[in-house]
Amino acid sequence: MLKKPKLIAFDLDYTLWPFWVDTHVDPPFRKAKNGQVVDAQSRKVKYYKEVPSVLKQLHNEGYVLAVASRTGEIDGANQLLKLFDWEKYFTYKEIYPGSKTTHFQRIKTKSGIDFSEMLFFDDEHRNKIDLNTIGVLMILVDDGVTQELIRKGLENFSEQYGSK
């Protein structure tokens, strides 16, 4: 029997989309007539290919999903979540500058879910070091979230917490 996390959280920049929302694109964002999301310069704003199906699948499987992002472009990040129609998947959103430990303290307080029941996907190794101190398992993302990375993350979680 595999041990599963109660909550799966994601960073945004270089995890769900291939850019920093505060430097590589120009908010505000909008949907163009063709339905594509564009920035203030009418440049198409893309996300990693497998992200929509990953979020939908995890949500349908009953996982509680959260965002933990330290961007300073809070409005732009929230706007993209809404325009990509991903807002419906996230129960908790902690999007503001600061430490990931602060993000997860707030998620824990709001959700009642212990750190040892959380799995986090992020592209920054420094966050793994910080989160290890509080017991959140972080999986390093190299080139965006994929189905395969989620599978490996769930396996790692089960191995780490399965016997506890």
Automatic annotation (TrEMBL):
Keyword terms: Hydrolase, Magnesium, Metal-binding, Protein phosphatase
Single GO molecular function: acid phosphatase activity
EC number(s) reported in the record: 3.1.3.48
Enzyme type, top EC level: hydrolase
Presence of keyword Metal-binding: yes
Cofactor(s) demanded: Mg(2+)
Record carries keyword Cell membrane: no
Catalytic activity field: O-phospho-L-tyrosyl-[protein] + H2O = L-tyrosyl-[protein] + phosphate
Name this protein carries in UniProt: Magnesium-dependent phosphatase 1
Lineage of producing organism: Eukaryota, Metazoa, Ecdysozoa, Arthropoda, Crustacea
Gene, per the UniProt record: MDP1-L1
